[in-house]
Amino acid sequence: MSVKKAVCIMSGGMDSTLAAYMMRDEGYELIALHFNYAQRTQKKELESFHKICKALDIKEPYIVNLDFFSQLGDSALTDKSIKIPTRGIEEGVPVTYVPFRNGIFISLATAIAEKEGAEALIIGVVEEDSSGYPDCTQEYISSMQGSINLGTKQDTILEIKMPLVHFKKSEIVKEAFKRKVPLELTWSCYQSQEKACGLCDSCRLRLNGFKLAGEIDPIPYV
Q1: Number of structural domains the chain divides into
Q2: Tell me: the pLDDT tens digits for 54-91?
Q3: Where do the H-state alpha helices sit in the chain?
Q4: 131-172: pLDDT as tens digits
Q5: Could you tell me how far CA 81 lies from the centroid of its own chain?
Q6: Which three-class secondary structure state does DSSP give residue 33?
Q7: CATH number at residue 57
Q8: Which residue in 175, 216, 208, 200 sits closest to 18, CA to CA?
Q9: Burial readout 9-46 (b: 16 or more C-beta within 10 A, e: otherwise)
Q10: Region 9-15: what's the mean pLDDT?
Q11: d(Cα 206, Cα 129) in Å, to the nearest integer?
C-alpha cells in the first residue's frame, strides 16, 4: 500500500503548524515547505519552522527563497518604509497584505507536490481571522485547485486541503492544545523577532484567541 503524501505550506505560525499536525494525524507523510519572502520576521519564522519540523520528525524540508517580494513592495511586511499598524484590526484589505502571496505560494507548492508524487497540498488559511486578505478565502483556494489540476500532468491529481478555513482563532487554540501542538515554537508577530509586540493585527488575533479559549500564550511578549 502506497503512502499518501501531503505538501504542507508552513510559515512557522500557529495556523499552519496545527494544519500540519492535523494532516499527520490523518496518516499523511508530510513534505514541509517554507518560504522566505523578505518579510520583516523572516529569521524568526525560519527558526520556528525548523523547530516545528524537528518536532514533527520531518527530515528534509523545502526552504524556498523569494526575495523578489521586496522588489514588489506595496506591503508593510516586505517594505520597511510602510509602518505595521498597531492600533487594532483594520477594515478592508490591510497594508500587511502581500500582493498575491498565496497564489505564488500555491503555484510553487504544486510544482513540489508534482515532483514528490503528493496527492494533497495543505494551507492553513483562516477565512474569518484573515484580516481581510483576499487570498485567504475558501472560494479563492478552491478555484486554485481547479487551475493547478488543469496545468499539471494528467496523472497528477491534487487536492488543496484547508482544514482551518472556517475555524475561529479560539477554536484553533483549543484544537492545538487537544492535539498537543507545541505552540511555544510558533511565531505570529508581524514586526518583532525577539519578543512579540502584542499590538499588530496578528498578535491581537492570536492573543484574543488564547483569551477566548481560556489558555495562556506560551510565547514571550514585550
Answers
A1: 1
A2: 999 999 999 999 999 999 989 999 999 999 999 876 67
A3: 14-25, 42-55, 68-72, 101-116, 138-150, 169-178, 201-213
A4: 689 999 999 999 999 999 999 999 999 999 999 999 999 999
A5: 24
A6: strand
A7: 3.40.50.620
A8: 175
A9: bbbbbbbbbbbbbbbbeeebebbbbbbbbbbbbbebbb
A10: 98
A11: 10
Consecutive H or E run containing 35: strand 29-36
**Residue 218 resides in a domain:** no
The backbone torsions φ and ψ at residue 81, rounded to the nearest 5 degrees and listed phi first, read -80, -10
Beta bridge partners of 36: 65
Q: Closest Cα partner for 104 from 150, 135, 63?
A: 135
- Grid look-up 520597511 returns 80
In a domain, 71, yes or no: yes
Using a cut of 0.85, tell me whether the model's pTM lies above it.
Answer: yes
Backbone angles phi, psi at 33, to 5 degrees: -135, 125
CB 168 within 8 A of CB 182: no
In a domain, 41, yes or no: yes
Residue type, 65: N
What is the extent of the structural domain holding 33?
5-213
At 160, is the secondary structure helix, strand, or coil? strand
Within a domain: 33: yes
Residue whose C-alpha cell reads 507523510 in the numeric block: 29
Coil vs helix vs strand at 120: strand
Give the burial class of 212: count Cβ atoms within 10 A of its Cβ; 0-12 exposed, 13-18 middle, 19 or more buried. middle
